[in-house]
Every structure is written in C-alpha cells, then in structure tokens.
Amino acid sequence: MTDSAALSNKTRRRAIDKVIWIGVAINILQTLSKIIGGVMTQSQALVADGIHSLSDLITDGMVLLASKHAHAEADEDHPYGHGRYETIATVALGMLLIFVAIGIAIDASLRLMSDQVIAIPGPVALAIAAFSILSNEGMFRYAMNVARRIKSTMLEANAWHSRSDALSSIVVLIGLAGTMLGMQALDAIAAITVALMIARMGWKVSHSSVQELVDTALDNETVDAIKQHINAIDDVKHLHMLRTRKMADQALVDVHIQVSSKLSVSEGHRISEAVEQTLRDNFDEINDVTVHIDAENDESIDRSLPMPALRKELLPRLKEQWRHLPVTAHIDNITLHYIENGIELELFLPLSVIDNLADAKKIQNDIRQASLQVHNIQRVDIFFH
C-alpha cells in the first residue's frame, strides 16, 4: 500500500492544520499590509483586497473546525466515521468562492459604469499587490501539493481559494497600473474576467462534493478496475450488485459475489476476506468493504415468489413425510442449499443402517420420494458414511 493509504486520521489532520495555520499567518500579514497600505496610498482597490484577505481568515477557521470534526474516530453514532464534515465544508468553501466572484463582478461592473475619478496610487501600492500575488500563489501550490498527497478535497478547495486571492490581487495590480497610465476601465474588465474564473473554480469544487453527499459512485474506470480484481480471485464465480461511494478521502464498496453452493460457510467467509484484502491493497482510497456471499446471482431471483422455509419450519415437515421410514431416525446431518427459490437437500446416514448395495439404493429412493413431497424441495442427495 502507498503512504497515502497508510495515513491515520491524526496524521492527516496534522497535515491539514499545518497548511491552514501557515495560511492564517499569511492572511493576517496581507490584511494589515493591504488595508494600511491602501489608506496611505489612497487605493480603494487595495483596501477592498485587504478586506477580501480578512474574509479568508473566516474560511481558514471553517477548515480548521471541519478538520477537527472530520478526523474524529468512528463511534457508535457515526460508525463510518465523520468524513462528511469535510465534504460539507468543501461545499461551503465552493459556494463562498462563487459569492466572492459575484461580489467582484458587481463591484467591477459598478466601477466600469461610474464616472467617478479614481485617485492615482503610488508605487508602494504596486509592491503590496505584487507581494500578495506571490504569497498567495505560493500558498496555493503548497496547499494543493499537500491536498493531493493526503487526498483532501476540502484542502484542495481552500487551495483554490488562495489561487482566487492571487487572481484578485492580479486584478488590483492591473487596476493600479492601468490607473497610473490613465486606463481606468482596464481594472474593471480584468476584474470581471477573473470573477468568472473564480466562479468556475467554486462550481467545480462544490459540485463534486455535492455529488459525494448524494453517494455518487466512483468513476467508471475505477469501478471497472475493482471488478477485474474481484473476478481474478479464485472461487469467485460471478459478482453483481457492486455499489461504491465516497466519503471525503475514503471510498466505500458494497458487492455481492457468487460462490459454489457446496462450499462451507467458513470457506465462503474466507473468500470474502480475500476480496476485501485485495481491494484494500490495490486501491488507496478504499477503506471499507462489505462483501455479501451468494450461492447464486440473486439479481435473477423472482422476489414476488414466497421465500422457502427456514430449517426450523422445514424439518417438522420432512419428519412428517418420513414417519413411515424408521431408517430416517439415524440421519445424523442435514445440509440445506437454497437455490433459485428452492431447496436442495443433503442427508447423511451411517453405513451401519445398510446391509448391501441394493438395500442402500432402496433407502435412498424411499427417502428421496418422501422428501420431494415437501414444498420447495427440488433435489435430495443421500450419502452413507
């Protein structure tokens, strides 16, 4: 298994928290430098970008809170863990990106239509905007690298938030430069373009997480690979009703596998363990596998028909049919196989009850004929041992 598969909740949370706290420090520095620098250089765009950085501190808090809850161990109320907290936080961050984009677009549109004369900022404002671009882009690359390593969509969404900050600072830089060169409309046009880019990012991260919340299956390529690995296991005759879903960085699999009806319960269980281990070993994201053992493809079973009787109800009916056959009192084992809404019966008798081959055949025939009178009994095999 790869390193990402072996990451514990504690290690994963530590990685996320480290990224966020670095982001908090950068956002505090940017907020102070932009607001103070904007006031000193009379740059309204720089002050607005400073307020934007201040809002990022709120999203950092959201991520830290979600990380704390999402990485809590599974408990009685949450047997599958708390990964959905991370998914919900990702949706919220995606929506926030969209709202930020809308705000930038509205503000830019108003400035584009306004005749207000904009004050000309100094070179200090340009330096602050340039620092913001470099620091946010660096934060984006660092956070994205960690997000992909630990497979955190929430951290990836927060990384894109840093990229949106870098893009908004580019808009500010272009606007400042354009204003200094007398091209005031360039600021607004660039802002609207960037707003569309930010909105697209927000839609992308929130849409994928919403799909996760409604238990959308893994991609077709991964599902096909899962099928190949299961079918490659000895004694798996067929698989059906394969269901997959995601929960944050984890994937859950539920599958029915068909094995021979003659296998013991313990052997069927061992095959299911092999399926589970194979999927865990070959897919980093899969950490929960539920395997249903079937003696047949239960997708083809007619569910409208009544279910065959269980052993407790069936045995009294058989004994009633066997009442005229004293030899049945020596039956020491009865195995039931439920196949296609019917029952196949295996009966075991000691050799001591027969004297010769002809006697054995007569006993087998008598018991078989009597047993087949019971509803849903489709086949009877009698063995002497």
Tell me about this structure.
The chain has 385 residues and is an alpha/beta fold. The protein has three domains: 9-213, Up-down Bundle (Alpha-lytic protease prodomain-like); 220-294, 2-Layer Sandwich (Alpha-Beta Plaits); 311-384, Alpha-Beta Plaits. The protein contains ten helices and six strands, in the order H-H-H-H-H-H-H-E-E-H-E-H-E-E-H-E. The protein has helices spanning 9-41, 44-70, 84-113, 123-150, 153-180, 185-213, 220-231, 265-282, 311-321, 357-371, and strands at 238-247, 250-258, 286-294, 333-339, 342-349, 377-384. The strands form two sheets. The protein has a three-stranded mixed β-sheet, covered by helices on one side. A hairpin with a 2-residue loop joins strand 1 (238-247) and strand 2. The longest helix is centred in the first third of the chain and has 33 residues, at 9-41. It is rod-shaped and about 115 Å long. Residues 1-6 have low confidence and may be disordered.
Strand order, largest beta sheet: 1-2-3
**Beta-strand percentage?**
5-15%
Largest sheet: 3 strands, mixed
- Going by CATH, the architecture of the largest domain would be Up-down Bundle
How would you describe the shape?
A: rod-shaped
Helix content: 55-70%
User: Can you identify the CATH class of the largest domain?
Assistant: Mainly Alpha
Alpha-carbon distance between the termini? 48 Å
Number of helices: 10
Q: Could you tell me the mean pLDDT? A: 79
CATH superfamily of the largest domain: Cation efflux protein transmembrane domain
CATH topology of the largest domain: Alpha-lytic protease prodomain-like
Helix/strand order = HHHHHHHEEHEHEEHE
Rg on CA atoms, Å: 34 Å
Number of domains: 3
Structural class: alpha/beta
Would you count the extended β strands for me?
Answer: 6
Give the uncertain stretches in residue-range form: 1-6
